[in-house]
Design the sequence.
């Protein structure tokens, strides 16, 4: 079984990565990352991906049995730019979910946020909802 993880360097993603690497159920743990990271493990497969390049993301997701998505950013990192925030916290997970369906990946698991609600007046809660 191959588990693919988007968001491996996030707070929750880093804990999940550790759990996946130590879970005997998975033979391969693939992480989709924007830049190189210094971590090694016999089961770990690192793929550098341009998340704005659909073909790059589609190829990286191919042959996954389950995809975990813990990707997210902060207002500080995107300098309060709501469009930039949306590209990370909404567009990447939605695109990844669509590509899972296209590649017959059986499961897509998204870690969102406490208070996520698509009808919220709060931008962040609405975005995560």
Sequence:
């Amino acid at each position: 079984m191959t588990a693919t993880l988007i968001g491996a360097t996030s707070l929750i993603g880093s804990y999940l990565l550790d759990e996946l690497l130590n879970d005997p159920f998975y033979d391969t743990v693939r992480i989709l990352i924007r830049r190189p990271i210094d971590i090694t493990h016999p089961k770990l497969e690192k793929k550098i991906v341009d998340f704005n390049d659909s073909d790059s993301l589609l190829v990286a997701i191919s042959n996954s049995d389950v995809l975990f998505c813990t990707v997210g950013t902060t207002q500080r990192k995107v300098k309060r730019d709501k469009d930039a925030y949306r590209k990370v916290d909404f567009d990447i997970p939605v695109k990844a979910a669509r590509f899972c369906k296209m590649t017959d990946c059986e499961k897509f698991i998204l870690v969102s946020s406490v208070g996520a609600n698509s009808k919220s007046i709060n931008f962040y809660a609405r975005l995560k909802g």
Summary: The chain has a mean pLDDT of 91. Helices lie at 11-21, 54-61, 82-102, 123-128.
